[in-house]
Amino acid sequence: MKKDKILLDHGSGGKIANSLIADLMLPLFDNPVLSRMDDGATLDINGTRLAFSTDSYVVDPIFFPGGNIGDLAVNGTVNDIAMCGAIPLYLSAGLIIEEGFPMTDLEIILRSMSEAAKKAGVTIVTGDTKVVPKGAADKIFINTSGIGTIPKGIHVSGSLARPGDQIILSGSIADHGVTVLAQREGLTFDAPVESDTAALNHLVDRMLSACPDIHALRDPTRGGVGTTLNEIANASQTGIRIVEEKIPVKKAVAGICELLGFDPLYVANEGKLLAFVESRHAERVLSVMQDDPLGENACIIGEVVENHPGKVVMETRIGGERIVDMLTGEQLPRIC
Amino acid sequence: MKHSEEYRDTLLSRQIIKRINTVSRRPIRLMEVCGTHTVSIFRNGIRSVLPETITLISGPGCPVCVTDQSDIDAFIQLARNGKTLIATFGDLMRVPGSGSSLLMEQAEGRNIRMVYSTTDALELARQHPDTNVVFLGVGFETTAPTIAASIISARQMGLKNYFVYTAHKMVPPALEALMNTDGVDIDGFLLPGHVSVIIGVDGYAPFFEKYHLPCAVAGFEPTDILQAILCLAEQIETDAPSLANCYPRAVSAGGNSKAREVMNMVFEPCDAAWRGIGVIPGSGLRIRDEYGAFDAAKQFEIPIIQTVSPKGCACGEILTGKITPLQCPLFKTVCTPVDPVGPCMVSSEGTCAAYYKYN
Amino acid sequence: MCLAIPSKIVSIEGNTAIIDVDGVRRQASLMLLDDIKTGDYVIVHAGYAIHKLDEASALESLELLREAFAQAGD
Description:
Chain A is α+β, with helices and mostly antiparallel strands.
């Protein structure tokens, strides 16, 4: 069936979203920086290397356990820059607000943004506010862009993963996606889960200080760990092998996933990262991560292999194997 | 005890796998009838640990996949009605009808809500007394009683704006129809565990008496499925077919009689069209006349449109186990999860989607 | 075809129970099952409890299963 309209799937971060980018956007904006398809662009301006990234936040509900749309918007862009191996410095913030939005809520959101920026050590230096008629937007949308500098000698990109690299995951998966979902109308769950939204730049800083030679960094947001690993396998044309048992999922998060028929590998994270590190440096990187509160549950979940380039294979709990494909469209709650 | 994790045990799984490898000598073809089994088999990589002698084929047990194109088109027409709010399980959202899907209708602004339970649909009807809430009823004997219960509740609550469009199906008649289909070659059945919770092991007795084919009721955790495969292999190797219950913690001989009572109070058997198989006598459930006020098919004019079946799609042959998705000319070429042609590629438990995703 | 999850009954009010799966709580209807009390484990499908799990016999058959495969020296 031809898709002549934009569907929610086009924004899911999975295959359908990727085909929109590949078929429509890349040909139109064609340039070598964009076609690297990393979390942010890396630019060389008169010898200074910069990372530049942008992201829009439309989360519903805007307040959720563990955070709100404000700190999410700051942390998300900070992380995109950090995943380029850069030190995030400056952010812009654009607000699109629906007419009638409560002033008190706006104040809470802006305060969260300010606190999150302080914590991450970045400054919000420019911004814009637009108000649209009631119904033309849902409550509030936020766009943030950011820039940071890439230190000398740091070269981090999804395309640089190499066979033999160990894959380190900084902690439990699916916390953010499941928390937001549990708040949605019609699905209400009462569960001890909260979003993991956090700025990862200080953690990345420690990691790169311990080992400047980290090959790839990615925060597995929309589409989850499964989709991100596929992106890296594709970008680097290597194979990826992960072990199901090693991937941490909190009990309550696993519970919600079971109830809704979700695979936690495809659920969004907002405060986790994947690092691809040569095996001789892996233990060192892992140990500095575990010393950081945001990486205390970090663990090695698999490795990069020469076989099956472009594919992710998982060893299952019973010793079987399966392919972990990229997410297609948004996962929908199912009963079958 | 959690009644789930214990059955994902690595050591126990490996022990059962070892035993299967010892026992299985003859090449056999086993059909897992249930789509949730299909997904669990792929997710756990069960095919990759079985000996070459055992071939698993996926049967017509994904309710979304076997729902006839005309029913899918009716769902879409109901969504276009303008005054309705469609409540549905998420499973149906992406299924392509003749030119559209519920997800595409949602993009057009139709009022479509995903719910987790019919209790959520009832709540929607209560909250929106001026809107007609239509629940799309698909599923087998496990789900049908929950839909029936919602209709009884709606009557008790005095709701005049809650309706169900029913496309429910029953498993035993489908098993029988499979046996009578030319070209179907099956040595044993892995029977659906949660359908069996309702109909009990006894629900398959007439079928087993007639065909004497090895049968094993199976749960959904990896050791449940492995154990049932072992049981079927043993039955075949010893030429001693039986109707075995490999899911005793959930399934009894008699099943859940209360649930069946509720189901029978609201529904009565009818002939039903299955995608890829055709009409199977007595395999469907329609709403009884006493509950006709809740029957969306009676209460709404549903325009009948010319059904366009996807060209070249082999979903029918795949659902009956005659071929695997790899033998369908559209598989991975024209038909992908991004652009599905047939329902077996859409449904997360569809055979083609499972082959595509996990193989 | 039918996702159904073992859940613990935390409380009951009329025909509705609060069920718990690993700390996740939700309502479930008891319309399809008789004689359920707090603390029971039930199998829940699409918001309805459809089967009561018998803890003792489940434990026993699991034990038997483990023994059966361990004994064989596998």
